[in-house]
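yo

u said u wanted the structure for the complex thing, so here. seqs first:
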Amino acid sequence: MSPQGLTAKGAATRERIVVAAADHVLTHGTAGTSLDAIGVATSTSRSQLFHYFPEGKAELVRAIVACQGERVLDAQRPELDRLDSWASWKRWRDSVVAHYTANSGEHGCPIGSLAGQAAASDPQLRADIAAYFESWRGHLRAGVQRMRAAGLLRRGADPDTLATSLLAAVQGGLVLAQARGDLTPLGEALDAALAGLRSYAS
Amino acid sequence: MSPQGLTAKGAATRERIVVAAADHVLTHGTAGTSLDAIGVATSTSRSQLFHYFPEGKAELVRAIVACQGERVLDAQRPELDRLDSWASWKRWRDSVVAHYTANSGEHGCPIGSLAGQAAASDPQLRADIAAYFESWRGHLRAGVQRMRAAGLLRRGADPDTLATSLLAAVQGGLVLAQARGDLTPLGEALDAALAGLRSYAS
DNA sequence: GCGATTCTGGACTGCATAGTCCAAAGTATG
DNA sequence: CATACTTTGGACTATGCAGTCCAGAATCGC
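structre next:
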């Protein structure tokens, strides 16, 4: 049994619930996702949801964020972990765009959308989302630092704010893309942010 | 009487509902805002809501977007309308940050948050939000064009994509700010985007 | 195999909410 | 002042939803 006292079968069911619920929440929003809908999507009954997520919907949504956050970050690997050349940044950019392109039909929307919904309602969820962004931003910052250490960027390039602006470009591009129903703003925003980074090239 | 057959009194009531509802929706989200809550906030009864917004909640939310969109754009004036020098861009940047700083407590969240909630649920609302972004982006694009016409930017500066990247920086900065509960990402993202613009200076 | 624990199904409760309806009060216009 | 129209109040219904409960099936530890 796993640490939480879960059978292999139980863990599988839990996983199945999270994955299916993630798809539903990311397309319909937290408010637009009922426990019933999750039930029919996963062929599970009411009691299982509360068995695996005793605190109810809020806990489930948090699990979704954790799951989906990992998915999104994984989609950027291995580039995200070894940003150390201009070519690697370009590859990273492409992997981000490719990931959202592939999943645009089902869940066109990222976790950022949840931030808006969670802002006031669930502080715990907001904190989880903030941590997720911070992790993502940390990878980008490390990349900028590597570039600077390698002498590819000038000293004036501040890894912290550059990482913020890169992540903001991704999230802002996604917001615009979602409103327009077309992903091109994401690519444009990313290109501009990378151009900004390149303006610090030494 | 006004075009829609509204008495002065009626128009005032309608306005009162929209304004109060806007505050509530922007802090609690559309799902977190019940018609009852709007009722108590504005001291109006159920029937008035449906009298002024026969299609119900969806129509009300659309009115809120129109109202709030105007508010946000107005907060950026007069700078937004006459972006034609580096100093004016800086002033614009400050007005954006100042606006969200002033309103961070009440409605920390912008219309962009609604895009996520509206994506699947209400296509009409999504279209309204897209139009709003397009209007905002149009002002920025005009500003870039003015800069180029004045010889302050090189020919390589594409007004269209630069406007997109600037707006994406605002929206992305707001998403991060919302998650973190702190507006600094907005300022940093905007500064980076403006630095990107400045890299095209001639 | 057997007892304890985990897993699953489905019915049930209680509540919050969107939307309807009708009748009364107010307000224009001639 | 009279009539038609707009505005307002509040009760009423429908429904959909989160969360509870209990009993039965499967599975694990020994």
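Residues 41 and 58 of chain B are 18 Å apart (CA to CA). Chain B touches chain A through 48 residues (CB under 8 Å).
cya
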